[in-house]
Amino acid sequence: MSKFQVEIDNIKTDVFREALPSYHTTSIAKLKCIIEKNTFEGQIVHPVKEKGTFLFYGKPSYNVDNAKAFDTDTFPICIIVKSEAYKIIDAFPFDSGRFNHYFILKEKLYEVNDFNLNKDTISFNKIIKVFYEDKESYYNDIIKEDISFDVENPTLRDYARHIQYRRVPYEVYDLRSRTIEVVIEDQSVLSTGVLTFILPSLFKRESSEHPIKAYIEKYQFNVCYYDELGLPPSTMRNNIMIATKNYLLKERLI
Fold first, then answer.
1. Would you say the pTM of this structure is higher than 0.85?
2. Could you point out which of 40, 76, 132, 172 has its C-alpha 20 to 30 Å from the C-alpha of 148?
3. How far apart are the C-alpha atoms of 180 and 11, rounded to whole Å?
4. What confidence score (pLDDT) does residue 197 get?
């Protein structure tokens, strides 16, 4: 058990028990490959030791590629899934692949596995409870005021400072530094857990023969759209977050 998880377990507090949705963020081109086999094909990315697909728990996080933002095949999409529908093989309270850029954590000589989490949604919910006021605050990226002074353990205090200040280089500055990362096992069946797709509005004009549209119609999945045409990447990302939040509020998931 990691240093971080031990200290989270030592905190006595009420925790909401229902699992929040998780999010897989990708591009239109990559989504075509996923739906062709109806599976999440995993990959090995340090520090995960086995193949897995990366999700974000409780909220989507995007870092839209400026260079590709006007190529429609690279437009970002989001798949909202039931977290409990898949086997979790690893989890961290941030994007583990960005760990080397997290100055506040690295200056104390932490290792990424010092923050490895238990593989269950109750543990994730407890982290949200400790560092945020509620589920909606977590979604909106609003941390408790003075949280770094409220926790006594150095590991928790350093993590609180990390999510509070997010000191990372500009080229990797994004929401993933304070989003819970979940890794599900390789070859997980996509259709098992889908709640809805967040797609660019250009899909409204696609025929039913388009592979993505055909897949959605086959399983009768819900779709929400975001505006994307003529937008800079940062605005595109914000519109995805707005579309996603509107869906969650409508379904009373946050």
1. yes
2. 172
3. 18
4. 95
DSSP string, 198-248: EEEGGGGGS-TTSHHHHHHHHHT-EEEEE--TT--HHHHHHHHHHHHHHHH
Would you tell me how many other CB atoms lie within 10 Å of the CB of residue 141?
15
H/E stretch holding 154: helix 154-165
Q: Is 68 exposed, middle or buried (0-12, 13-18, 19+ CB in 10 A)?
A: middle
Write out the two tokens for 236.
């595109």
Q: Could you give the 3-state DSSP secondary structure of residue 40?
A: strand
Residue 235's identity, in one-letter code, is: T
Give the model's pLDDT for residue 218.
93
Which of residues 99 and 81 earns the better pLDDT score? Answer: 81
The pLDDT of residue 64 is above 80: no
Mean pLDDT of all residues in 119-126? 95
